[in-house]
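mind reviewing both lines:
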Amino acid sequence: MSLFNSNGVLILLHRELSSVEKAPLYDIILSPQFYISRREQLPVKSTFQAKKLAPSILEEYLSSEYDYEYLVEKDGDSWLLYAYSPREIEEFLMSCCDIEKHKIGKIYFADQLKSRLSKQPIGVDEQNALTLIDDRATIVPRSIIDSDNYIKFTKGLRPDKSFKYNSYSNSSGNDAISKEYIMLSVLLILLSLAFLIEGFDYKKSLKIENNKLSDIYNKYPQLQSKLTRDSIGEKYESIEKSERAKRELLDTLSQLTSKKSILTKLEISDNRYTANFKVDKAEIKRVKSIATASNLKVTKADSSLLTIEGVLK
C-alpha cells in the first residue's frame, strides 16, 4: 500500500537537523541546502516540455557527485525549475535521524513559502533562520537579520502543492526502473498488439480482394493482360478527365448566374465551349470582372449580351 497520498509528519530538512519525532511517514520541505532552483521564461506550454529542458538549464549549478531529479512548476509567465539529489537526501536523513527512504512521502521546496517569508522569517534553529534574499528562500544566521520575531516551523506551514518523491536505488549498480518506464513499456506492448491485429485484418482483407480479382479474371480472361488493363484504364481516364472538366466549367459558370445575369445558351463540342449570358446593363462590368477572375475568356460584351468561349482542359 502506498503512503504517498497520506500526510506524514512535516519536517524542514536542513544541514543542522539532528533529530525528529518518530513517525511511520515524513513529508519534507527541502531547504535551499538540498536543492537548486531557477526561474526561467521558456518557449513551451506543457510541464513535460519544461521538464525536458530543466537539466540543460540547471546542470551548471549542480555537483557531479550526485544524480538529480528534476521538477517544474508554472508560475505566471515563468517556470520554476527544481533539481534535487535523492541519494544526498537519503544519506543525510539516515545519518542525522535514522530515517529510511521508504518513510519519505511528499516533498516541498522552501521557495514555496515565499508568501510567508516576505512577511517574516522562519526560525530553523537557535542560530539560523529561513528568509528571502533577492526573492529566493535562503538559510542565513539570525545575527544578520534585522528582526527579533520569527515564525515557528509547524505543520501549518505545509505548502498547498506537493511533489512526488523519487527515491534513489543502487542495489545492483543501476537506478531502479521508474514507473514512467514501466508505463512506456506497457504502452509499447499494447501498440505492438494493435499493429499485429491490424496486420492480420489487412492480410484477411487482401486475401478477400485477391479472391475477387481471381473471379474477375476467370470471368474475363482478357483482363489478365496488363496491356489490356492499361488500355482500358487510359480510355476511362480520358473520359473521366473530360467529364471532370465539364463539371468544373458548369460550376464556374453557375457562379456568374443571378437574377440579373441569365445563362441563355451553352454549347460544348470537341472540347470547346461557348456560353451566352443575358446581362442587365448595369451588371455587365461586374459580371465580366468575375468571369476574368475565374480565368474565363470573354469574347464579346455589349449592352445586354456577354459571350464566353474557351477550351476544356
User: Anything to note?
Assistant: Helices lie at 47-58, 86-97, 114-117, 179-219, 226-254, 284-293. DSSP finds six helices and 14 strands in the chain. The two ends are 74 Å apart (CA to CA). The first helix runs from residue 47 to 58.
